[in-house]
Specification:
Blueprint (H helix, E strand, L loop, with lengths): L28 H4 L4 H15 L3 H13 L1 E6 L5 H9 L4 E8 L3 E7 L2 H9 L18 E3 L15 E2 L6 H9 L4 H12 L3 H18 L7 E5 L13 E6 L1 H6 L19 H19 L3 E7 L6 E6 L4 E7 L2 H16 L1 H16 L13 H13 L9 H6 L8 E2 L2 E2 L18 H13 L6 E2 L8 E2 L24 H17 L3 H4 L15 H4 L17 H27 L1
Parallel strand pairs: 1-4, 2-5, 7-10
Antiparallel strand pairs: 1-3, 2-3, 6-7, 8-9, 9-10, 11-12, 13-14
Keywords: Coiled coil, Magnesium, Metal-binding, Transferase
Cofactor: Mg(2+); Mn(2+)
GO molecular function, one term: poly(A) RNA polymerase activity
Length: about 575
């Protein structure tokens, strides 16, 4: 979702299995991509610890951590030691980090909620001149430092929140020795950091402080890229106002006398949702510090509230009771944990698609990231042997506690990854990337649909350009928005990219030019790739622009050899 309330467009570095922690990030490009041996060791330890937990357990742990955290606006030149000493008077600090977004901010996690209560007792409502302050006591605070600060003390390290530029990515990839290394490096450069994910959960928790005034038992849950392990730096934050717990506790049947709450009634569940979101949107706009640009988009198929959260830099979308979307997030998370190649391939394909405008942050006829990810999953189910199991297989492995039916849709999947036995497939990432492009460059989109529940092509039930069955709401097409022109552009780019990966000039590492996967990101490869006809093309050079690219690589390669030769002769 691109526009509603709590979908935040924070630029964050993805996390592997929601368990990676990126240590020692610096604003400089070089620092952006380096890590120490000790950090790598801690990453491995954190990942192993997370993998023993279910998706739900990880989300609950993060939510509980967020409720023990505060977000503080700080002076740009802050004495970190004095800052922490002051806060430590109220309790033990588990962890903290600094970042920049419309100023300097710190996220501080205490070891207990009692520390938050103690801290709040010492906080003042600011006195403002010529205006009046809304006395809403949130956990978004400002740290005031009287007098001037000395610049002699060491500055805290600010965690990077923005993604690398395409030039930085190309430079980084060109230094690797194989396409496999390039895709692994790309994932690490774009994936969410532990800090980014913590900040996202904290923003959800801050919003829950507002909604809790009306619905004390509600929960604001992030879904989509924030939690499915495929989030990249810069993606929005999607949130759900979960009222299901309130309904569940009210359905207890007892014998004899009982009491019921008196409630307002609406014409339909949709009308009630619209009414609730309308009020929440108004409260966020009027009372939510740092929340700007609030829009109530209530007539959409899935009503939502959209806003920007300036202190975090996130663009946010808030919906209500969208439990199927949460289950889809869990499904993608599960697939991402089964084999590391899944995440590397998804990050690579998504990056390639975004560079060439196959996907877009603007709603329209483009293929969405969710659709593209499902296409990667389907392709991996088609391998021989398969790399990923079908959704039906995940349902078969589910235990009684995994049973889940939402609005008549069977959303049951296994939560214990140890129950899943994978077949031995040793395909390299380079081979998978090449054959992904070949697979969809020749896929019979005119008659077949994509179905990850069955793991095989099925006849399209309707005449849309692209039909990808919703994994859980099986009567819906998640790619219904895609038109024929955009699908043809995707197919044409797949064929050209598949052909390029067959050329030795592309596969040979060059010190002067992007090679391998980096070569697929060059604008010259696909400039003017609009489809002029719907006739199927073979896997061969589609235009002179590809030949020109290869010629340039040959020339540069020859120049490099010539330079080395002249250098040797002169020495």
């Amino acid at each position: 979702m691109a526009a509603s309330s709590v979908v935040c467009r924070l630029r964050y570095r993805g996390l592997r299995g929601l368990g990676r922690f990126w240590f020692g990030l610096e604003p400089q490009t070089q620092g952006r991509f380096t890590s120490t041996a000790s950090a790598q060791k801690e990453n491995t330890t954190a990942k192993a610890a997370k993998e023993s937990k279910t998706f739900q357990a990880i989300q609950e742990e993060r939510r509980e951590q967020a409720e023990r955290s505060v977000l503080i606006s700080c002076p740009s030149k802050i004495n970190e030691k004095k800052f922490l000493d002051y806060l430590s008077k109220h309790g033990t600090i588990n962890k903290h980090f600094f970042y920049n977004s419309y100023g300097a901010y710190a996220v501080v996690e205490f070891s207990s909620r009692e520390s938050i209560a103690s801290l709040k007792e010492s906080i003042n409502i600011p006195a403002v001149e010529h205006e009046a302050a809304v006395p809403f006591k949130s956990r978004l605070l400002s740290f005031k430092w009287p007098g001037s600060q000395s610049s002699s003390h060491p500055m805290p390290k600010f965690k990077v929140q923005s993604p690398p530029s395409i030039n930085e990515i190309n430079q980084l990839l060109s230094e690797k020795d194989s396409i496999d290394e390039q895709l692994q490096c790309l994932t690490e450069a774009l994936e969410l950091t532990e800090e980014n994910v913590s900040l996202r959960f904290l923003v959800c928790s801050l919003l829950r402080d507002i909604t809790g005034a009306y619905f004390p038992e509600c929960i604001i849950r992030p879904f989509g890229s924030t939690v499915n392990s495929f989030g990249k730096l810069g993606c929005d934050v999607d949130m759900i106002l979960d009222l299901e717990g309130i309904y569940a506790t009210s359905q207890k049947k007892g014998s004899g006398l009982s009491l019921e709450y008196q409630v307002k009634r609406g014409a339909s569940e949709r009308a009630v949702t619209q009414s609730i979101l309308s009020v929440i949107g108004k409260c966020v706009d009027q009372f939510g510090p740092g929340c700007v640009g609030v829009q109530n988009i209530l007539q959409a198929r899935c009503p939502l509230v959209r806003f920007s959260h300036q202190p975090s830099g996130f663009q946010c979308d808030l919906t209500a009771n969208n439990r199927v979307a949460m289950k889809s997030s869990e499904l993608l998370f599960l697939y991402g944990q089964l084999d590391p190649r899944v995440r590397h391939l998804v990050f690579g394909v998504r990056c390639w698609a975004r560079v060439h405008s196959i996907t877009s942050s603007i709603p329209g006829a483009w293929i969405t990231n969710f659709s593209l990810t499902v296409m990667v999953v389907f392709f991996l189910q088609q391998r021989n042997p398969p790399i990923l199991p079908t959704l039906d297989r995940l349902k078969e492995l589910a235990g009684p506690s995994d049973k889940c039916v939402i609005e008549g849709n069977d959303c049951t999947i296994v939560s214990d990854l140890s129950k899943i036995t994978l077949q031995q497939n040793t395909d390299t990432l380079e081979k998978l990337l090449q054959e992904f492009f070949e697979f969809y460059g020749n896929f019979p989109f005119n008659k077949a649909s994509i179905n990850i529940r069955k793991g095989k092509e099925q006849t399209k039930p309707e005449t849309t350009a692209l039909y990808i069955q919703n994994p859980f709401e099986t009567t819906l097409n998640i790619s219904k928005n895609v038109n024929a022109t955009q699908l043809e552009r995707f197919v044409a780019l797949c064929r050209e990219s598949a052909w390029l990966l067959q050329q030795k000039e592309i596969l040979n590492r060059s010190s002067d030019s992007p090679w391998g996967f980096a070569a697929l990101l060059l604008p010259s490869v696909t400039s003017g790739a609009g489809v002029k006809s719907r006739r199927k093309r073979k896997l061969e050079p589609a235009s002179s622009r590809i030949k020109n690219l290869l010629d340039s690589l040959k020339i540069k390669g020859g120049e490099t050899v010539a330079k080395k030769g002249s250098a040797n002769s002169s020495s």
